[in-house]
Design goal:
By secondary structure, the chain is α/β, with parallel strands linked by helices. Strands 10-9-8-11-12-13-14 form a seven-stranded mixed β-sheet. Strands 1-4-5-6-7 form a five-stranded parallel β-sheet, with helices on both faces. The longest helix is centred in the first third of the chain and has 17 residues.
Amino acid sequence: MEFAERRHLLLYSGSSHPELAEEVAKHLGETLGQVDIHRFANSEIYVRFLSSVRGAYVFVLQTGAPPVNEHILETLVMLDALKRGSARRITAVLPFFAYSRQDKKQLAREPVSAKLMADLLHTAGADRVMSVDLHAGQIQGFFDMPFDHLTAHPLILDYLSNELGGDLVITAPDAGRVGVADRFAKKLDQELAIVHKRRDPKVHGEVETLHVVGDVQGRRCVLVDDMIDSGGTIVKAAEALMAHGASEVYAACTHAVLSGEAPRRLEASPIRKVMVTNTLPIPPERGFSKLEVVSVGQIIADAIRAVFEDESVSGIFGGDN
């Protein structure tokens, strides 16, 4: 008995970012699958998919938005339900990969939580994972399954080119972002600068000293980073650039974590515009006048379509992912 393979794509959303999931579904020409997700009285999570997933190629979109740990567990429960429902292939689509900054040990007796996340996803039932602009590329090596690394860099490059034009200095806010800033500078044919910072590894979120490497006098500077969390690093970098004679400072990053006082801090900073993407939801109360948001919905949809059709994902980005 022989059967011609018939593929069926199903896209489901967790509760962290349904707006992005709806947008991705629209780009795919699909309708989000129905899933019952609720909490028991003691806060335990219940999940049930409301139609058959047997033999389907299933994609679950869930991002690392607060409450982060609750959304992680919700993702794992969803993956387990799909595995037990006999889905043919399960892909976890995680636009912002939670715990990505804990990718190595810096002090004794620390965890490597990003690796733990990879193990949890694999155990729960994921056959494949995709994410956008990891904090560190080495995280891909933590997975014993295919990992598709998407990037929002084309969106950021288009924004910088169309909105700001030329005569820019692409600036890395710390040594860890030099590679990304250098690629941006080459793509835009602009100059590169670096803000070198010193941190106390025992005090999280505080920068001790800043030094600017590069000529920024009278120039418009663009700080590029993978995420803005508390805003402390990027605001201090902007202040350092202005102190060294920069005429204007802009910021562009993929993930708008915007924890705590970040919106107020960025609004009061010398940064003229903060460009981010919607890998994380930004509630109205976390917005501010300098913030501009572009969507990664089309990029994620294109990657899902490529995976479903067994086409190249890197081809979407010209190999730059």
